[in-house]
UniProtKB/TrEMBL annotation:
It holds the Pfam family PhoU. It is found in: Cytoplasm. The lineage of its organism: Bacteria, Bacillati, Actinomycetota, Actinomycetes, Micrococcales. Keywords: Cytoplasm, Phosphate transport, Transport. Belongs to the PhoU family. Homodimer. NCBIfam families: phoU_full. Transmembrane segments: none annotated. The gene is phoU. Its main location: cytoplasm. Plays a role in the regulation of phosphate uptake. Residues 17-102, 121-204 form the PhoU domain. SUPFAM superfamilies: PhoU-like. This is Phosphate-specific transport system accessory protein PhoU.
Length: 226
């Protein structure tokens, strides 16, 4: 019985790693689609979102089943609870990648923004792709130094998000209404993507250390709210 339980716990970890990989691929493709007005790539991201949702559903079913059947305690309980929380956060990151792809598809054959707006969005996009890559490594390694790095680097996306507001509020440049909407929406999507990366980092820290401080901060600050 214990061996079966161990295998089920390991499967949770494998499914989370697969989910993180697919999320990272999605944000990478979405940002490229946004930059290059690539319709086919945008549609790939949109279609693939269902696979991420399906993995989340499977993880949640596994976790609830383990809680009901095995009544895990201590480290095992942390693993199951963390899997439930992280699957939800990874699914939201996948949704945000899909939102970016939706905008890219909606503006085809043009890009969503031009000039300074396009520049700041691309810088945000590249940073979001970096966050996605880091989350994949973190889920696989549970490296606390990497978790701390993800959290500290979130200020990069926050600062770029502020720059996006400066672009749309610049009175010396008259932007089309649709472009203003795109910059505001995409800036929000990419900034939230980074916030969810921080949530994953805090969940991993809790899993490894058992320290609730950061996990509680995640709930209190609304990091898990899309």
């Amino acid at each position: 019985m214990r061996e079966i339980f161990k295998q089920e716990i390991e499967q949770l970890g494998l499914d989370l790693a697969s989910m993180a990989e697919q999320m990272s691929t999605a944000i990478g493709k979405a940002v490229t689609a946004l930059e290059q007005a690539d319709l086919a790539l945008a549609e790939q991201v949109i279609d693939a979102d269902e696979k991420i949702d399906a993995i989340q559903h499977n993880i949640d079913e596994q976790a609830v089943s383990l809680l009901a059947r095995q009544q895990p305690v201590a480290t095992d309980l942390r693993v199951v609870i963390t899997a439930l929380r992280m699957s939800s956060t990874l699914e939201r990151m996948g949704d945000l990648a899909r939102h970016v792809a939706d905008v890219a598809r909606g503006r085809y054959p043009e890009t969503a923004a031009r000039g300074a707006g396009h520049d700041v969005l691309m810088r945000m996009g590249r940073q979001a792709v970096n966050v996605g890559d880091q989350v994949v490594r973190l889920v696989n390694t549970q490296d606390l130094d990497l978790a701390a790095s993800i959290e500290s680097e979130d200020s990069v996306l926050d600062q770029l998000h502020e720059e996006s507001f400066q672009v749309v509020l610049d009175e010396t440049v008259e932007l089309p209404r649709q472009e203003i909407v795109d910059v505001v929406l995409l800036g929000r999507y990419l900034e939230r993507f980074g916030d969810h990366g921080v949530s994953i980092a805090r969940r991993i820290s809790f899993l490894v250390t058992g320290d609730l401080t950061n996990a509680v901060a995640t709930e209190t600050n609304g990091t898990d709210v899309q």
